[in-house]
What we know:
Layout: E1 3-15, E2 18-29, E3 32-43, H1 44-85, E4 87-90, E5 93-100, E6 103-113, E7 119-126, E8 136-137, E9 148-152, H2 162-176, E10 180-184, H3 187-193, E11 207-213, E12 218-222, E13 225-230, H4 235-252
Helix pairs in contact: 2-4
Amino acid sequence: MAKIKRKAQNKIKQRGDKKEVCEIFKVNKGKKEKSVELCGEVEAGKEKASKHVKEAEKKQLFYAVIIMAAVLVLFFAAYAMFQQSKKFEYNGFKFEKIMYDKLPLYYTKISITRMDGNIINYNLYLRNDPRKNNIESDAFVQFMRGTIFVSLNKDFEKCEDTNLAMTNIGMLFGAIGLDLRGALDNLEQAETLKRPYVTCENTKNNTVILYTEADKTSIIQQGDCYAINVANCGILNATEAFIMQVLSDMQKRP
Length: 254
């Protein structure tokens, strides 16, 4: 059987655009030893092209990594800006826009001193952006004497947000430690339903929050009476504006 040994010797000859590469092998057959030279040609241009391709691929990979990194940085920066845009300050209160299911709410936590002197944290949720809920008001809410009446008429039953508005104002005054009593500003309705008949004129030494229908929504103070004029069933907007008025004026008290 013949034995083949490779010699550590290569011959390279340049012939134009081609290289001739030869290797020498020793073939032992019995006692005879014979040298065999095997040669082949390689195009020099192909080697150079292969190197250029590898260098181009490296550059492409480098730029791809840079672009991906830049996209990620921009994404996280945009996300951070978007999150920050949901937070704002209004009248000294720090609000955050949150989603409750698909319903946007404006949330803030407020420190309130109750009538008994205890301090609580009150969680306020508004349906309307307080920055855009621009309702004219000349009121300065003082705290509040006597019985507190919330008086309106049955015409507000047609407004879909009336119950929510009454719930919100009741929760706030309950947190402060004040009890509200419901009343009607229409004598006939009050007698029929056996409810107190309360207006700004007939109730003295008590506090009245009186809802009336009007052409323009506004809040007007008449002594201890706060007349909340409501246009186009905007009772929730008006109530949230009054709530913010109460809380802002509470912060101003010494």
